[in-house]
Design a protein that fits this description.
The protein has 14 helices and 18 strands. The N and C termini lie far apart (52 Å). It is 34% helix and 26% strand. The strands form 4 sheets. An 8-stranded antiparallel sheet has the order 13-12-9-10-11-14-17-16, sandwiched between helices. Strands 3-2-1-4 form a 4-stranded parallel sheet. The protein has 405 residues and is α+β, with helices and mostly antiparallel strands. The protein has 4 domains: 99 residues, Rossmann fold (3-Layer(aba) Sandwich), CATH 3.40.50; 61 residues, Dna Ligase, domain 1 (2-Layer Sandwich); 131 residues, ATP-grasp fold, B domain (D-amino Acid Aminotransferase, Chain A, domain 1); 84 residues. The chain binds adenosine-5'-diphosphate and magnesium ion. The site of magnesium ion (MG) has 3 residues, from loops.
Length: 405
Amino acid sequence: MNVVFLAPSYPPEMRQYTRGLAEVGARVYGVGDGPLAGIPPETRQHLTGYLQVPRIMDEVDVAQRVQAWLRGKRVDRVESNWEPLVLLAARLREMLGVPGMSYDTVLGFRDKQLMKERVKAAGLRVPYSFRCTSQEQVREAAHTVGFPVCIKPIAGAGSADTYRVGDEAELKRVMKLTAHVPEVSVEEFVEGEEFTYDTVCVDGVPRFENVAQYLPRPLVARTEEWISPVICTVRELDQPTLRDGIKLGRQVLKALGMGTGFTHMEWYRKANGEVVFGEIGCRPGGAHLVDQMNFTCDIDLFREWARAVCWKSFEADTTRKYNCAVIFKRAKGEGRIHTIQGLRTYMDRYGQGVVWENLLPVGSHRRNWKQTLVSDGFLMVRHPTWGGAMTLANAAAEDVTLYAS
Ligand SMILES: Nc1ncnc2c1ncn2[C@@H]1O[C@H](COP(=O)(O)OP(=O)(O)O)[C@@H](O)[C@H]1O
Ligand SMILES: [Mg+2]
């Protein structure tokens, strides 16, 4: 089993998938834009070969180089778990004649407009929306949709340049703020709670499923710095509040022709119970969601993903044991972190439920909280009951404070 794995060491969690591939018996051929020497030895040991390319985003160039590099070798899989490279992986599969999702199928998971069109064509509920390339179109779309609307980039990520617009005055302001975005989506603003639906699929059939709740919604979390955003996996999937969302998720996978691998979908649940599709990727969720899912079931999805991809099988026991929450912290003040207040007391009281303490240590420079959800680090906690997990999460949000200056 020869697997070409793109970006085997970046972002850092990709190292875990590289390990997983090797553990299930694959020979891993890594392709990345960094030097081999920059890959830590514990990851390097899992690579059978490595090709450094000058520009990893240059599809045509990378395809040509990989083809030349692997000439004469049988390639069984070409994979990527990093959103910017999923299309490159598909392109390489087509060029090398390797099985897996086609370029067109992956495009449905990558181009947000096409995604919505395909999901809608399957009769599923997506936000009422317009694709706009001029200010005139934005104004017209906002009036057709009716306030409140959501204005966001078609090629968006991490809630960047995304706004809720409640009235005419806000529309004026937001149109100025988004004037630099070449193409926006103007959508009906769906008020409600926001969840994920995550899977590891084998030939489109979910062998592992997960739901996590965002507390608060990502758009709010990205707007207010004082908030410690929480994401919590839900242990009990078989409950009325989630049933329609999970059903929607399964239908979306069918509508988009999912193959084998991770998916990460976002969906909204309105107060009246109606569920609405948000977006989906054919790759794992970021910001340590895979670790959370692992802690939810005490399994290793890095390895199970590899098993699914290589051997079309999934062996882990998916019994859900915990609700696992991550609490991202943002220091007060700018510059370097000098104090972490309340952590000792928190650990004394709740330490048993803490599976990972990964706050930036005193002395480190603050990260840009707008650019990385991970912010200045996090606590990851778990509890068999939802209420218990919320107690742990709320205490971490409220009672642990980092200070910088
Ligand atoms: N139509 C909408 N109605 C309400 N909120 C929305 C809508 N579209 C996006 N949002 C909010 O903005 C966030 C980011 O939008 P999303 O479509 O997920 O793009 P990305 O995560 O790639 O930036 C969502 O998580 C949600 O909180
Ligand atoms: Mg999103």
